[in-house]
Amino acid sequence: MKHRLLLLALALLLLNLAFFFLAILPTRRAVHVNAAAAQDLQNRIRSLRHEERQQELLVSLLNRMDQFRNRIPPHGAILQMIRRVTDLARKLRLSVPSVKYDPVEVTEEALVKLTVQMEVGGKYAAIRRFLYEIEGLQDPLLIEKVVLTSRRGMDRLSLRLAIAAYFLDEERRPADREAGTGRL
Prior knowledge:
Layout: H1 2-71, H2 78-91, E1 95-106, E2 111-122, H3 124-136, E3 141-150, E4 157-168, H4 173-179
Antiparallel strand pairs: 1-2, 2-4, 3-4
């Protein structure tokens, strides 16, 4: 009977080993392969989410660029902008002895950069208000240089101002629009 029990135990051991090698080992290998594939998929999903966030940011930036670019006035508005600034100075009772402007093409961006140098004179409060009003204008202006001087014993100040403004180059802009090309 011991011999039979030993044979039965040996047969059960062989069945267990056969089951282990034929069923459990391949399943374990498949689980490891599937776990590695799942990890790869999770990494890819993270990568795609990151890429999606970057693309959303890029689209947002491109939309902002278009909004800004649409605010840039056409080249023909240069004189209107200069007139608006000088009228503003005169409205504030400032004298405007000189206004010089120099348009320069910014070829890679199809823009014209206009540098306006002007002198105004008047009381401090009016000059301060003038600078405040210029900063609030809807035109995309950039105050590049401000020099404020006064003479001893006088209540009038002199302001030399350099303003940069950008305008669309009308000759190059329509072609860009029609072709649907936007510069980044």
